[in-house]
Amino acid sequence: MSSLAEKDRPIVQLLLNAGTCPRCVLRFCCVGSQMLYRQPHKDLMKDLQEFLKNSEEKEDTVCLAVADPPCKRIRLEPRQEGADDLNHNGAVPQLPSAGDGNIAVESSAGKVCNVCLGILQEFCEADFVKKVCQKVNSADYQFTSFVFSVSLPPQLSVRERAAWLGVKQQMRNLGLPLAKDDIIQLKEAYKWIIHPQLSEELGVPADGKSLFEVSVVFAHPETDEECHFLATACPDCFKPAKNKQSVFTRMAVIKALEKIKEEHFLKHFPCPPSSPKNLCDALEIQCNNGAVFVAGRYNKYSRNLPQTPWIIDGERKLESSVEELISEHLMAKFKADSFNFSSSGREDVDVRTLGNGRPFAIELVNPRRIRFSAEEMKRLQQAINDSSDKIQVRDLQLVTRSAIGRMKEGEEEKTKTYSALIWTDKAIQREDIAFLDDIKELKLDQKTPLRVLHRRPLAVRCRLIHTMKSEYIDEHHFRLHLKTQAGTYIKEFVHGDFGRTKPNIGSLLNRTADILELDVESVDVDWPPTLAD
Amino acid sequence: RICVITLAEAHPLLQSGKTIKNINYQISANCSRLQNKVSGKSKRLCLFIFQMQGAQFLTELAPLCRISSSDGEEYTIYSCIRGRLIEVNENILSNPALLQEKPSTEGYIAVVLPKFEESKSITQGLLTQKEYEEVLLKRRSSAS
């Protein structure tokens, strides 16, 4: 257990005089014992008073905070090595008398701390904890741990620096050395105190890596303008940003505090800082769950269904979409705020997706429900499949964020197979198309198709048709099965796109060809893992 | 809406007997339609917009190319559409016969993308196939 030593005495005295709360005093004395901070405010104050009072007593008196053991929090050391307290001249440093200490206590008690503005005071109490937990419970989230994040007003950094400079000055005046120990950070101490209480109320542990975040934003409008003087010292730290309301953001203030010279700071800001009238306000208590990812494969049986909603000028051009038909059910079950749909490539509105289907992943943002068993996922899959005959899903499962990367990999690298129904202007016989079956690794040069030029840059892409298999139907029709490299435009390979895809079926057959129907037969990605039925 | 500029079916160059001698995309000393900067290798939207800004903007009377036939005639093909020039068909430079054999498909002249706001008014200013044929009929009857 840490304790206060003689060297801390002037610091404690100065800060208590200035209206600093006991916990902040401990922080500035680099007291690292978490337990201490959790003690009730009143007890800590009493102990500090005792500590100060005992400075006036004789060396050989064993100093205890208070007589009764339950209240004994700070184990104080008697003044053993008096020589250490002497300054270089050998004179005993003059410390304020015990009488002054009492005045400091009186002026400190009940006041809002001049450093933490109440964060380590009121906002550590059971009432606030209850308020937070009420908000969490009413939000009805499913979670197994939590991370508590706190947003502090920027002026706290200013006040922290001011208190430190005040201490530094005082020690210099007294001719005392000031060790460059690490002051305990406000946020850290706050979490030491509040985490166990939140944990107890919510029934789950605090975990820095938790996906469930409870966040509180604190503000102190009374002192908002305290940061403004920094703009004169470091104007380039405070450039007006477009989206932010105030230029004095936390980051900007911290940056300026790093740059500002001590003398300048001392000139423009009281060190230690003055006592505020009011506490901080806890503006918002919000809950957020990290996104969950659901993956699967979808089949599309409609030739009239876009993958994503087709809306132009606010008007929906076609009813529904693959993405909506799938995510509707997921959104409801997971109780999420929104979703992001991605898939391993896309097909046109009029193209069916057959075979094993196309891999997709849906990110569910801020879900209230996160735990689903394999059984429940199966039932969810069934519900989606029962709700529509335009699409079907399989292998529906929870996956990690890395899923998205795997899918995009599939989009860019993996082969696809297709079946195209082709029409020709001039008659064909079986022998006219038989040669197509023998062509392997056909190299295409495809300029960006005209039909997508309004939204894609003009470029030439080199793509491979790995294999083809033709099925003669009649003099003007045949079916072609092809296996192609990812990113190949099949329709353009058939009709040639004004000669901008070369070669094309038309040029190969020396006719004019057009595509009547296209189906995706397979998307050759072995992800997500196939689930047993 | 993307527009593909092609020779109209009544164009003299598409009448029998004409042979194309030369196709030139150099419009003036400083302007060549071949130097239209719209090439890029990225799918990113910001690069796409940048490319669009680099592309030459055409008005209705902007010349796309000049075509000379072996009988000494020279024809200027105009854009007829306001918009950004996306590409000119380089295939007809290497194979001028394409222009006459497949004027409406592989023998196209250029691709132009009108401004989004002007798209509708441009479409409305064009003739349908039927209306065009009526124009031709009238022309022929007044000529004879």
From TrEMBL, chain A:
Keywords: Coiled coil, Cytoplasm, Isomerase, Metal-binding, Mitochondrion, Nucleus, tRNA processing, Zinc. It catalyses: uridine(55) in tRNA = pseudouridine(55) in tRNA; uridine(54) in tRNA = pseudouridine(54) in tRNA. One of its GO terms (cellular component) is nucleus. It is found in: Cytoplasm; Mitochondrion; Nucleus. The keyword Acetylation does not apply. GO terms for molecular function: metal ion binding; RNA binding; tRNA pseudouridine(55) synthase activity. Its EC number is 5.4.99.25. Residues 113-287 form the Pus10 N-terminal eukaryotes domain. SUPFAM superfamilies: Pseudouridine synthase (SSF55120). InterPro entries: PsdUridine_synth_cat_dom_sf, Pus10-like, Pus10-like_C, Pus10_N_euk. Signal peptide: none annotated. One of its GO terms (biological process) is tRNA pseudouridine synthesis. It comes from the Eukaryota. Belongs to the pseudouridine synthase Pus10 family. This is tRNA pseudouridine synthase Pus10. It comes from Dicaeum eximium.
UniProtKB/TrEMBL annotation, chain B:
It holds the Pfam family GCV_H. InterPro entries: Abitram (IPR039169), GCV_H/Fam206 (IPR033753), Single_hybrid_motif (IPR011053). Gene3D superfamilies: 2.40.50.100. GO terms for molecular function: actin filament binding; actin monomer binding. The keyword Nucleus applies. Belongs to the ABITRAM family. This is Protein Abitram. It comes from Dicaeum eximium.
